Amino acid sequence: KDWLDPNNSGVTTLNGFDPNAASIDNNYNNNIDLSIYPNPSNDFVLIKVNSNKLNKYNLTILEISGKIIFSAEIYNNQDIRINIKDFASGIYLINVLGHDVFLHKKLIKK
After folding, report:
1. 46-50 long-range CB contacts below 8 Å, 24 or more apart?
2. Which pTM value belongs to this model?
3. Which residue has the higher pLDDT, 72 or 16?
4. Which of 39, 42, 47, 24 is nearest to 88 (CA)?
5. Could you tell me which of 46, 30, 47 has the C-alpha nearest to residue 95?
6. What digits encode the pLDDT tens for the residues 22-47?
């Protein structure tokens, strides 16, 4: 990956993105965290964006196919309770998008 490290400094990140990372739970934003509890869950989850910034974010829950099955606005440090009782068992993707922020994690529905 010479194009990521033209000065041969040993650093292979681009704006906090590590191209070698394989985990979907990586988050590339400093001082911002996405918490999901309980995970895995059967009936509901609490989602919270932990940040010291005063922002609102767009929250989406997607099936693995990419189909959006839930969306809402969420504000930092606000818990949002989401009923997932009618979701099929499986893995879902939770995305949070805001100004200069993109967070994503897995949600497991039992």
Report:
1. 46/79, 46/80, 46/81, 46/82, 47/74, 47/79, 47/80, 47/82, 47/94, 48/74, 48/77, 48/78, 48/79, 48/80, 49/74, 49/75, 49/76, 49/77, 49/78, 49/96, 49/98, 49/103, 50/76, 50/77
2. 0.71
3. 72
4. 42
5. 47
6. 444 444 455 788 999 999 999 999 99
